[in-house]
Amino acid sequence: MQLLRCVRAASCLTAMISYEEALQIILSDNCSSSQTESVSLPQSLGRYVAKTQSACINVPGYDNSAMDGYAVRAEELAALEQGASFCVSQRIAAGSIASPLKKGTVARIFTGAMLPEGANAVVLQEDTVVDENEKVSFTEQAIKGRHIRLAGQDIRKDEPVVARGQRLNPADIGLLASVGVGALDCYRPQRVAFFSTGDELKDPGEELEPGQIYNSNRYFLESSLRELGLEPMDLGRCPDSAEATASMLLRASELADCIVTTGGMSVGEEDYVLAQAKSVGSIKFWKIAIKPGKPVAFGDIKGVPFFGLPGNPVSSYVTFQLFVRPWLLRAMGAKNWNHQRIVAVSNFDFYNRGKRLDFLRGTANVQSNGQLRVSLFSNQSSGVLSSIAKSNVLIPIKAGCGLRAGESCEVIVLSALGSDLTTV
Ligand code: AMP
Ligand code: MG
């Protein structure tokens, strides 16, 4: 059994595994978050709820008026002839306590104010006439229940307000405030240590010398992590050397819950990450049959999950989206950790002649007839980072398969939080 496992592990490192196998290995990693912390409401935007939160009160807490006007007994108005007038027995503003409505009278009432006991309708102030004796007559009939917000019509006591695994958005935060929740239990954000490898890399703001390029992976990675609500730990650039790579991997493992590197994943003389990850940690797989992004490794360094992404920025970006993102979201306790997949109609012909699953970069737009159409970015080279910046979906095409204009296909939405589709 042990031997079989070793043989399997070894074959994962030499042969390419499929996209599905890679995902299965990654997601079978026991990554669910268990650490939680209490987070105050103003700090909770983008956090993942650790415990379903139920309302301890009804919202609204009491029947109240939806408009400025008069609280009445509808049947008393109906019984009297048109033009009959009523004394105003009380004035109820929002925030004050109403007394029971005296028979044969009406109450002046304002939006949000408590409905007096006995009243069953509100008549708009526009539909009333006040005479010189301050008595009120009505130009419209009162309809039972009209302009009244009933207690609990928004949220009922004990009803769940936000559920475990949900990412909090501004509306959720407003809802929590409406039931009086000032702090709630959320999962602790995963700390993700990352570094980029490559002696050719410089940072924006520095002068480029011949043969050098700007480090783009460092910046998209940091912002992707922030966008997902994680805690990025930027370890900077690692020189192309075995010693530096090994020591940075070890440092990352001491600091973080997860490690992500870019570059140095092939077996060229200047590629050190794979070899050093094997030396100071262990690797579950290395090559995936996808394009872009074949050389992706997953394993651990001293027990800390490790993703080694390719250096090529398009490959880094795509593999981050396909593999790191779902792992991290699950680890953060997110219920919706998977990609959003939607169906669109292709406006291009494409045939995948290669042996790997292609993830084409494209744009899905909602047409004026409501149809979602996907078009291909003009340059699919894995060196063209604009193909990512100008796209909002990945279009998977299996090896040996094609797609014709007019056919429907499933596309993966490239957005941290969900749909980001444009309308044309
Ligand atoms: P590597 O995987 O290290 O062989 O790098 C593959 C290609 O990606 C090379 O052309 C590198 O110069 C480029 N590259 C590697 N890392 C980065 C990075 N952080 N930012 C931009 N380009 C990079
Ligand atoms: Mg390199």
Q: What order do the strands of the largest sheet run in, or round the barrel if closed?
A: 1-19-21-22-18-14-17
Total number of beta strands: 30
Cα Rg: 31 Å
List the bound ligands: adenosine monophosphate, magnesium ion
Report the span from N to C terminus.
57 Å
**What coarse outline follows from CA principal-axis ratios?**
elongated
Main beta sheet, described?
A: 7 strands, mixed
Count of spatially separate domains: 4
Q: Judging by the overall fold, what is the CATH architecture of the largest domain?
A: 3-Layer(aba) Sandwich
What's the CATH H-level superfamily name of the largest domain?
A: MoaB/Mog-like domain
Describe the model.
The chain is an alpha/beta fold and 424 residues long. The protein has 4 domains: 2-34 and 188-331, Molybdenum Cofactor Biosythetic Enzyme, Chain A (3-Layer(aba) Sandwich), CATH 3.40.980.10; 37-53 and 158-187, Molybdopterin biosynthesis moea protein, domain 2, CATH 3.90.105.10; 64-149, Molybdopterin biosynthesis moeA protein, domain 3 (Beta Complex); 341-420, MoeA, C-terminal, domain IV (Beta-clip, Beta Barrel), CATH 2.40.340.10. Helices cover 22% and strands 31% of the residues. The protein has helices at 2-14, 19-28, 74-79, 170-178, 217-227, 242-255, 273-280, 313-331, 386-389, and strands spanning 16-17, 36-40, 53-54, 64-65, 69-72, 85-92, 105-109, 121-124, 128-130, 136-138, 148-149, 160-162, 183-187, 191-197, 201-202, 213-214, 231-238, 258-262, 282-288, 290-291, 295-301, 304-309, 341-346, 350-351, 357-366, 372-376, 393-397, 402-403, 408-413, 422-423. The strands form 8 sheets. The protein has a 7-stranded mixed beta sheet with strand order 1-19-21-22-18-14-17, with helices on both faces. Strands 8-5-7-6-10-9 form a 6-stranded mixed beta sheet. Strand 21 (295-301) and strand 22 form a beta hairpin. The protein binds adenosine monophosphate and magnesium ion. Residues 196-198, 200-201, 213, 215-218, 262-266, 271, 310-313 line the site of adenosine monophosphate.
